[in-house]
Amino acid sequence: MMTTTTTTHTESTEQTAQRLVQTIAEVGSCAVAFSGGVDSSVVAKAAQLALGDKAIAVTGRSASVSQTDLSEAAKVAKEIGMRHLLVDTHEGEREAYIRNESDRCFHCKTELYSIIDRVMEEQQINTLLNGANVDDQGDHRPGMIAAKNYEVRSPLIECGINKQMVRQLAQHWNLPVWDRPASPCLASRIAYGEQVTPARLKMIEQAEAFLRDHGLHEFRVRYHRDDLARVEVPLDKIAELADPKLRDELVATFQQIGFRYITIDLEGFRSGNLNQLVSLELPS
After folding, report:
1. pLDDT, tens digit, 9 for 90 and up, residues 105-139
2. pTM of the predicted model as reported, rounded to 2 decimal places
3. Where are the domains of the chain?
4. Phi/psi of residue 94, nearest 5 degrees
5. In 3D, which of 217, 154, 156 has the Cα closest to residue 182?
6. What 8-state DSSP symbol labels residue 270?
7. What is the CATH number of domain 13-172?
8. How far apart are the C-alpha atoms of 241 and 235, rounded to whole Å?
């Protein structure tokens, strides 16, 4: 196992890119757990440069992944020039996942890695890589425990690469997702303690599609008890969302989707903010 190295301030983006490629080249062959987001796209690009056709990208397909994200993942993999496999995952059949406690991501990643593990055996590939970066180590990330259990390597962490540097690498390689906002799975929008169901995931997907179709780029539709939607957009977009014409259309659409109550969060868009509620909603 490679030890983690630290990127120096004097290292150029090209030097960081070369070091990442060299790190991945040492594994011989790999599968990248590929969401199509900027992190996994950078790892996939480096893997393709390092290993050519001995590297594949694998994306999990389930109700918790929007059709938009699946489509984007396919486009990015094609642009990278990497063989891309879609595999069906069944985390929605796991009781622990449905309960949606603070370790939900552990059960989701366990399902994903177990499926990819079988694909790797069929494809005669020896190493699984993910897109975790240095900044992920300071957040609530139970999925990292699942990664450890399956001996998944995190080359961005091994190379001391943080989120800002990931975006620099993506831009360096002309990846179309270099400035794409983070887009975690739909289940991450459901408040801990509220069950994850296909119906609720579909409600969130449709509600976020409405926001996307109206020109918004950063947003979340959070699901809370009693079918309440808490809409987060950047602070400078709140007035736009509250404009009577758009507001009325939003309310009517969300109610048709199945939400009973619709609120706009006055604190604005905050990625991962449901993690703040872990100690409030769940026993320790």
Report:
1. 999 999 999 999 999 999 999 999 999 999 988 76
2. 0.89
3. 13-172, 188-281
4. -90, 120
5. 217
6. -
7. 3.40.50.620
8. 10
